[in-house]
Amino acid sequence: MPGKMPNWVQKFGYGEFIHLEHRECGACMMKGDRVFRVVGDNCYEATARLEEMDETGVSIQALSTIPVLFNYWAKPSDGHETSRFFNDHIAEVVAAHPRRFIGLGTVPLQDADLAIREMERCLGELGMPGIEIGTNVNGENLSEKKFLPFFEAAEKLGCALFVHPWEMMGEKQTERYWLPWLVGMPAETSRAICSMIFGGIFEKFPELRVAFAHGGGSFPYTIGRIGHGFEVRPDLVATDNPVHPKSYLGRFWVDGLVHDRKAFRYLMDVIGEDSICLGSDYPFPLGEAVPGKLIAKMKLGKKSEKKIFYRNALRWLNLPEIEMD
Predict the structure, then answer these.
(1) Model-level pTM?
(2) Which of 263, 233, 229, 269 lies closest to 249, judged by CA?
(3) Strand pairing category for 136-137 and 140-141
(4) Would you give the DSSP letter of residue 309?
(5) How far apart are CA 63 and CA 126, in angstroms?
(6) Domains in the chain, start-ordered, CATH in brackets?
(7) Cis peptide before 2, with omega less than 30 degrees from 0?
(8) What is the pLDDT of residues 192-209, one digit of tens each?
(9) What is the CA 318 to chain-centroid distance, rounded?
(10) Which residue stretches of the chain are H helix?
(11) Reported confidence tier of residue 25, pLDDT bands at 50, 70, 90
């Protein structure tokens, strides 16, 4: 996110738009007039990121907007304005360091037409290969008909989509113990994958390239239950798409950030090593301090490591193949 941003609450006169206030304790993400989170300079300073990338052996990093900045709840025109601001910032960082960063944009998905317009600008004017979207839009699943034009446009444009959880289900009921992040986020990602499968998004738009955060959440580990439910209650599950959910395994990407060797092995068995990209969740606590450390310890072999460390990501982003040691 930018180190400086407008106070949109004052400008628009409503809501809890995030802005930064730099204080002695650090940079405070202000949600309206209250502190939402204190962040380090690696959230907004490219030089700080580059230093830590060099320290941890990361050659290239994909930049995406912090989900709380999606602003899907805002008036569409205001959400469009904030999206443009964040996208311009990411594009500037990438332009200054083109060999180290790849930019992913954000769009006001509460309005499909404006979202398509900004997606076109991201790929055209700003030269981005893709955008990041949330797992739901103001509580509505990604399978809602109102979003079909957006997915159709993404397929036509060849826009890669990165789906990240936010506004987790049951967040108000699970506030203690950090449960929204530990339990809600994995469930939220599975919600998005299932919605796109059962809603026929992958069937309608087979060339769509979609990646889901955090190992696909709880989806890979509940695919048996999901598939069984499809088989025994098609009257409830297969109402919009008659294709078995297991048919889509390998049709989308996930990152490999699961923090557990056995979980990663299972992820490879279910999703396939050709559809797993290295995830870091940098620079937040639930990320991996040294990206790829767990995978490197597993000694999967050079061929598999190269796929997971960068080749699969390049294929998802539709970027030219490169060779890295």
Answers:
(1) 0.96
(2) 269
(3) antiparallel
(4) I
(5) 14
(6) 135-317 (3.20.20.140)
(7) no
(8) 999 999 999 999 999 999
(9) 17
(10) 8-12, 46-56, 76-96, 112-123, 148-157, 179, 185-198, 201-204, 219-232, 234-237, 261-271, 293-297, 302-306, 312-317
(11) low
